[in-house]
């Protein structure tokens, strides 16, 4: 944020008006990214400082596939499992429904950001759901494995949902947190993990699971 | 680096409460023209190679990213959930502009890329916790004759 950079006063800084998580503005837009990069590198020529320059352009909007009518997830999820309270089964069903679009995303992009954790995606869903009852492990290992199981699940959902153009980051976040079983699973985990008597799990539940804007 | 007005009130309050002490001594150096600079990226985006261990929880460690890395081999394991990841999911370069720097190198706009780039996981700790790792990385950058560093937050 500009306000914080003003206080720190680093030798050279470029303020950019982009959302957090996108310091070079827009994915799949090499020209715009290069413009931001050049603006930052040009600050090296300054003879005195501190220098705090403003990048003058907003990031270009994501290409729309629907003429601006609003994004809806292209995947029709299967009916919920027989037991509506079985969130683990519901997430597994969603994974199955999203899988073709996730695979298309990997094919088109030539990469996936899934892989921060050490479980495959079905195992990740199973592992996370087990915490609704009790902690299958204790200590740092449990919180690290759970954290990255969840990050991988979110990446899987996000990549599947953006395999076709038209979704903004806000569309994806609203959908994931408000309309999916994964969102319900994450919110329920946030509600129960603090009760296991593990300081790391409690911190994770409070600070590092549900974004502030969806709490 | 975002507009305050684009943030939720909770995010705004959280970020404005951060420890933002002024850098002591007003450090500033000049150097050769850009076309003669050797450049490294240091990011706080919690990036690492797929084959590396993920970042631990609440850690101030760092990871090494070789300059010839393929972007498909880079993943993110960052503690914070309060920033967008869909941009990174679509294109590594929106966070870690390695392909853009390669283009500048090929065009002769910069002299060269460092042999290694470095990634920290910038969440939870106050800045002082990163000092030991930062000094270590600075030493490696100096050994590699790097004379410009692109510091990229996320």
Notable features of this structure?
heterodimer, A: 215 residues, mainly alpha, 2 domains, two-stranded parallel sheet, 8 helices, B: 154 residues, alpha/beta, five-stranded mixed β-sheet, two-stranded antiparallel ribbon, 7 strands
Low-confidence stretches of chain B: none
Largest interface: A-B, 75 and 68 residues
What radius of gyration of chain A results from the CA coordinates?
A: 20 Å
Largest sheet of chain B: 5 strands, mixed
Can you put this structure into words, describing what you see?
The complex is a heterodimer of chains A (215) and B (154). By secondary structure, chain A is mainly alpha-helical. Chain A contains 8 helices and 2 strands; from the N terminus they run αβαβαααααα. Chain A has helices spanning 2-8, 30-42, 87-109, 121-130, 139-161, 169-179, 181-192, 199-207; strands spanning 12-15, 51-54. Chain A has a two-stranded parallel sheet with strand order 1-2. In chain A, α3 packs antiparallel against α4 (121-130), α4 packs across α5 and α6 (169-179) crosses α7 (181-192). Chain A is globular. Chain A starts with a helix and ends in an 8-residue tail after the last helix. Chain B is of the alpha/beta class. Helix content of chain B is 23%, strand content 19%. Chain B is built from 4 helices and 7 strands. Chain B starts with 8 loop residues before the first helix and ends with a strand. In chain B, 40% of the residues are buried.
Write the layout of secondary structure elements.
The complex is a heterodimer of chains A (215) and B (154).
Chain A: H1 2-8, E1 12-15, H2 30-42, E2 51-54, H3 87-109, H4 121-130, H5 139-161, H6 169-179, H7 181-192, H8 199-207
Parallel strand pairs in A: 1-2
Chain B: H1 9-16, E1 38-43, E2 47-49, E3 62-66, E4 74-76, H2 86-90, H3 98-106, E5 112-113, E6 116-120, H4 131-143, E7 148-152
Parallel strand pairs in B: 1-5, 1-6, 1-7
Antiparallel strand pairs in B: 2-4, 3-6
């Amino acid at each position: 944020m500009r306000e914080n950079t003003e206080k720190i006063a680093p030798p050279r800084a470029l303020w950019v008006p982009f959302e957090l998580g996108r310091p070079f503005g827009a994915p799949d837009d090499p020209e715009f990214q290069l413009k931001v990069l050049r603006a930052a590198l040009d600050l090296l020529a300054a003879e005195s400082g501190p220098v705090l320059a403003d990048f003058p352009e907003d990031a270009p909007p994501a290409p729309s596939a629907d003429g601006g009518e609003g994004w809806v997830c292209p995947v029709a999820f299967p009916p919920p499992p027989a037991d509506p309270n079985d969130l683990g089964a519901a997430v597994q069903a969603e994974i199955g429904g999203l899988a073709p679009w996730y695979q298309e995303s990997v094919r088109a992009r030539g990469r996936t950001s899934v892989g921060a954790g050490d479980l495959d995606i079905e195992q990740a869903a199973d592992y996370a759901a087990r915490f609704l009852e009790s902690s299958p492990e204790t200590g740092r290992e449990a919180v690290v494995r759970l954290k990255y199981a969840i990050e991988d699940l979110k990446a899987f959902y996000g990549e599947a949902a953006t395999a076709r153009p038209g979704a903004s980051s806000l569309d994806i976040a609203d959908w994931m947190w408000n309309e999916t079983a994964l969102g319900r699973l994450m919110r329920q985990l946030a509600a129960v993990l603090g009760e296991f008597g593990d300081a790391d799990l409690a911190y994770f539940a409070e600070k590092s699971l549900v974004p502030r804007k969806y709490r | 680096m975002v507009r305050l007005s684009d943030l939720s009130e909770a995010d705004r309050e959280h970020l404005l409460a951060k420890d933002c002490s002024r850098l002591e001594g007003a450090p500033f150096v000049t150097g050769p023209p850009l076309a003669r600079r050797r450049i490294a990226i240091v990011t706080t985006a919690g990036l690492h190679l797929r084959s590396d261990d993920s970042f631990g929880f609440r850690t101030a460690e760092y990871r090494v990213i070789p300059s010839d890395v393929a972007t498909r081999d880079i993943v993110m394991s960052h503690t914070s959930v309060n920033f967008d990841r869909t941009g990174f999911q679509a294109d590594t370069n929106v966070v870690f502009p390695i392909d853009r720097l390669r283009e500048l190198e090929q065009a002769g706009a910069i002299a060269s890329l460092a042999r290694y780039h470095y990634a920290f996981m910038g969440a939870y700790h106050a800045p002082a916790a990163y000092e030991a790792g930062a000094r270590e990385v600075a030493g490696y950058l100096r050994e590699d004759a790097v004379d410009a560093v692109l510091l990229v937050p996320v």
